[in-house]
Amino acid sequence: MANALVVIKDLSNTYHTRSYGVFGRERTQPVLDHITLEIDHGEIFGLVGESGCGKTSLGNSILGLIAYEGDITIDGLRLNHEGRLKRSKELARKVQAVFQDPGAALNPAKSIGWLMEEPLKIHRLGTKPERIQKVDAMLHMVGLDPRYKSRRIHELSGGQKQRVCIGCALMLEPKLIVADEAVSSLDVSVGAQILNLFQDIHQRLGLGMLFISHNLPVVYYICHRIGVMYKGQLVELGTAQEVYSCPAHPYTQVLLEAASGPDFSVALTQGLPPEGQYQRQGCRFAERCPWQRADCEKSTPALINIAPSGEALHEVRCVLFLSSVQDKPI
Ligand SMILES: Nc1ncnc2c1ncn2[C@@H]1O[C@H](COP(=O)(O)OP(=O)(O)OP(=O)(O)O)[C@@H](O)[C@H]1O
Ligand SMILES: [Mg+2]
């Protein structure tokens, strides 16, 4: 992708935690493992995977909120390696976030109008009347009446709160929105309305979006391309249509089956190894894989493009695609 909006190269991160007390031992937990990914201008990229696989960590790395190794470039701006925890104002104007819990993301003591005007004030953009006009226009864009300006967060429904969060994120006209489980806490019908709002905003503003979710059908509905993560690695990457209709990696197949089955959570946790125990070598999914072979645990497979030449990339990290067609799990 030439001049992609987001270029992520070899991104890895490790969390260091220490348990309480004088003798508290330091624990290191590697999460992201050499992620390489591009998101194009105006593209909605979906990131799926089960809980704890590192989706939020990837989003937070792009937002400049956590430490990492590797390179991230957003619209030509390379994130500062040493200063990556200190979010520059320039980065804030390029990337904004919408999180799962809109109630927790907004200051309950302030009015909606104040909250939406704040980013403009911080960045010293426009005069007071111009800022108020922009807040009104933004409320209208996210489907709220401008009279909501004087309300506080506790006076809004969950869906309305999320609309305010989306409005706040758009005030600085960012190029990329990181939406982390932005509809997960909402009731199904309200979630569908917020999904439609994301689509509407995308069509109007042509924004790039990283849409993080554990829900494949939701991601399929809204995204152009999908990346499937398992234990900190991307295991499959392709257009939403390809990944959804021809899932290649056994883990993607399990995810899709689980999503269509009667009990999503039970299916997902069957055979789940203890959290954080990453294998040093080989495929991380091998211990749960129905097509496991001896060579699965020998070396870590790279992403292999399985799309016919001339078609959009469809990459999969599975040794079964290194060998004969008969061995393929599809
Ligand atoms: N600040 C932190 N300090 C230490 N460990 C962390 C921190 N944040 C996340 N982790 C650990 O990193 C792993 C990945 O977490 P992350 O939040 O990225 O997962 P996720 O894919 O977003 O999960 P979910 O779908 O539940 O939101 C988890 O095992 C988590 O416990
Ligand atoms: Mg998360």
CATH architecture annotation: 3-Layer(aba) Sandwich
Give a count of the beta strands, DSSP E runs of length 2 or more: 14
Unique bound compounds: adenosine-5'-triphosphate, magnesium ion
Shape: globular
Mean pLDDT: 87
Please provide the ordered H/E string of secondary-structure elements.
EEEEEHEEHEHHHHEHEHEEHHHEE
The helix fraction, in percent, is 25-40%
Strand order of the largest sheet: 8-9-10-5-11-12-14-13
In short:
The chain is α/β, with parallel strands linked by helices. It has helices at residues 55-62, 89-94, 102-105, 112-122, 128-141, 158-170, 188-205, 216-222, 240-245, 250-260, 264-269; strands at residues 6-12, 14-18, 26-30, 35-39, 44-48, 69-74, 77-78, 95-98, 176-180, 208-212, 225-230, 233-239, 304-305, 315-316.
Explain how this protein is built:
By secondary structure, the chain is an alpha/beta fold. The chain contains 11 helices and 14 strands. It has helices at 55-62, 89-94, 102-105, 112-122, 128-141, 158-170, 188-205, 216-222, 240-245, 250-260, 264-269; strands at 6-12, 14-18, 26-30, 35-39, 44-48, 69-74, 77-78, 95-98, 176-180, 208-212, 225-230, 233-239, 304-305, 315-316. The strands form 3 sheets. Strands 8-9-10-5-11-12-14-13 form an 8-stranded mixed beta sheet, sandwiched between helices. It has a 4-stranded antiparallel beta sheet with strand order 4-1-6-7, with helices on one face. A two-stranded antiparallel ribbon has the order 2-3. Strand 9 (176-180), helix 7 and strand 10 form a beta-alpha-beta unit. Helix 4 packs across helix 5 and helix 5 (128-141) packs across helix 6. The protein is globular, with a radius of gyration of 21 Å. It starts with 5 loop residues before the first strand and ends in a 14-residue tail after the last strand. The relative contact order is 0.13. It binds adenosine-5'-triphosphate and magnesium ion. Residues 15, 17, 29, 31, 49, 51-57, 214, 275-276 line the site of adenosine-5'-triphosphate.
